[in-house]
Amino acid sequence: MADIKRSGGVVEDIEKILGFIVEIEKLKDVYRKTKPVGLDRFENSAEHSWHVCLTALMLKDFANEKIDINRVIKMLLIHDLGEIDAGDTIIYANETSENKAKEAAGIGRLLNILPAEMADEFLALWHEFEAGETADSSFAKAIDRVPPLLHNIHGGGHSWKAHGITKEKVFSVNQRIEAGSKELWSVMHNKLEDAVHAGILK
Amino acid sequence: MADIKRSGGVVEDIEKILGFIVEIEKLKDVYRKTKPVGLDRFENSAEHSWHVCLTALMLKDFANEKIDINRVIKMLLIHDLGEIDAGDTIIYANETSENKAKEAAGIGRLLNILPAEMADEFLALWHEFEAGETADSSFAKAIDRVPPLLHNIHGGGHSWKAHGITKEKVFSVNQRIEAGSKELWSVMHNKLEDAVHAGILK
Question: Where is the signal peptide (chains A, B) (predicted)?
Fold first, then answer.
């Protein structure tokens, strides 16, 4: 067994972090509005978070601006934690300020389980993601929209149908991808046009 | 819609990456041997991958050696992809060379969906993780063991009981955590001793 020479602060900090690690397990029980390709169940926000991190990592070279992929991945690892208290909201819904406030309070509650400096650092990163105004956050937000589109494209448009989302809405809302990557939006735009021609997006 | 000025290579590369992104959805259907704290279902390897990335990020300051947390996170994002073809193996099982070969073949198949240079880069990273000999991979491997212990500690030792894992085996197998972080192992060791005293680890 390790013999810790440092003061009690180390153990206290590790205990706080492990408390956080246990608390965020709850994201595995927040369900989204689309089903992963090939699976007959809805996706949870924890597995979605993993998926968007790898999507960002693999597509990093197609960002419009110079980005720091490591910051992008950190943002995407924490971007949905606010949903533990607020729940998931479909991207096509008009987000209310009430829901936004609930998510902000939720991420604050969770991060405050961590040692103080860490909480401050990640809260700032979360707010940067939410605002979506920097190169890193703009790319992260673009990437966040890609897997749900793939779920619909490869899954008969199940979520578009279930929620009555029109093609006009799908094109206009997801054009936001272009702000992060023009090249990625071009490819996704073509895939959405194919979905219209196939009759799964109306 | 974006107007792509570059050659067709860009679109081809994006298409390959999106193919990979869809293929790795299958990790969301690989089930592990423990249940997330508070949930009455087994954990899948995709949500586990997200969880260990955040565990590593938050505990990075407690690594024994100087590590590059960004490389550690990349390793952990891909570390279980081989399970899509090989399935999950409990850490207490003696890993057979047959299963190892299956995982190596599986990760090779998946990464080869990507553009060639990317496949090479991530295959090297996966092999580094598997070998566990560098500072980064040693820490990543230590972190990988923490959440399943927390699942058992906070979940009545459900997986230890179901698989007949003794306390001797739990202590000896997880002592590997010490090679990545002596401080973390010290804290986890105490928690395991508490689990013995509480009668959930025998």
Answer: none
